[in-house]
Amino acid sequence: MPDEVLDPDDRRMLEAIARAHGHGPRRPLALLDLAWSLAGSESAGRAVLHRLLMQGLIELQPGTPTLDVLGRLSDKGAGLVGYS
């Protein structure tokens, strides 16, 4: 996916998720908390997460759904921000 296709706000969110993973394995993160703090509101955070999910840049944790929206970078998302 070329960089110019990714919205700048979406790219910032993807980079923030990568930073939250640190140098270890891509463990599940509370994506909504992170998105909310970056986007400024729950609805804006959910919108960004939805776009990233639909583009295959993040993946949700399988199992019981939570309010935190547990998930991680996908391989595609990690490659886009140089995390892989």
Could you describe the 3D structure shown?
With 84 residues, the protein is mainly alpha-helical. Helix 1 crosses helix 3. The mean pLDDT is 88. The radius of gyration is 12 Å and the shape is globular. Strands 1-3-2 form a 3-stranded antiparallel sheet. It has 4 helices and 3 strands. The two termini are 15 Å apart. It has one domain: Winged helix-like DNA-binding domain superfamily/Winged helix DNA-binding domain (Arc Repressor Mutant, subunit A).
The strand line-up of the biggest sheet is 1-3-2
Helix/sheet category:
mainly alpha
Q: For the record, what is the CATH homologous superfamily label?
A: Winged helix-like DNA-binding domain superfamily/Winged helix DNA-binding domain
Low-confidence parts lasting 5 or more residues at pLDDT below 50?
A: none
Cα separation of the termini: 15 Å
The helix count comes to 4
Average predicted confidence as pLDDT: 88
CATH architecture: Orthogonal Bundle
Instruction: Give a count of the beta strands, DSSP E runs of length 2 or more.
Output: 3
Largest sheet: 3 strands, antiparallel
> How much is the radius of gyration in Å?
12 Å
Q: Can you give the helix content as a percent range?
A: 40-55%
Beta-sheet strand percentage?
5-15%
